[in-house]
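Sample 3 of the quickstart, ligand zinc ion:
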Amino acid sequence: MGVAGRMAGGRRRVAVGVVATVVLGLAAACAGNPPAAQKALSTLEATVASLSPGGSPSPSSTEDGQVPDGVTLSPFDTKAAAVRNLDPALLAALRKAAGDAKAQGIEMSVTSGWRSKAYQQRLLDKAVAKYGSLEQARRFVNTPEKSAHVSGKAVDVGATAADYWMIQHGAKYGLCQVYANEIWHFELLTTPGGTCPAPLADAAG
Ligand SMILES: [Zn+2]
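Result:
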């Protein structure tokens, strides 16, 4: 690699650090102002993913399950690992819901779906660095062992209008909001048409 290449690499690492810091700051703000913070967080998380060294140039999601910057990932994308590796029952419910939402003028996208253990660990490591302890970080990011994203049984939905649509109508498809501080995170927690359990306070709950 030439001098120019090394310099570009250095700038890229600096950019990753800055963006990661902003992301984690926004994560902290999520509990206070979920809709605005979530939109910004999704965008910035995607930016971090695209800047990460070794990131795949895959168009809609890396093989780790990261969704690159600027990508609006459809629940009907069959190539993206983030969607492809979701639990089949969850994916079917999500697609049904997305179709019905669209018919009502609400566009639904996947901001994060399946994640590899390594990707989940990186998210947790960043949160620990930010909050200073695993205990605090766990309020926002789960461990690879516990995260339903790693088992393909959780999906983060955007944009904000779609989050609220899903909170209101998700139970019809068995999809429930799991954490009070994450309006975008849904899992299959009831039978279609059933009643969702009350959300937990946060991911540590
Ligand atoms: Zn989630």
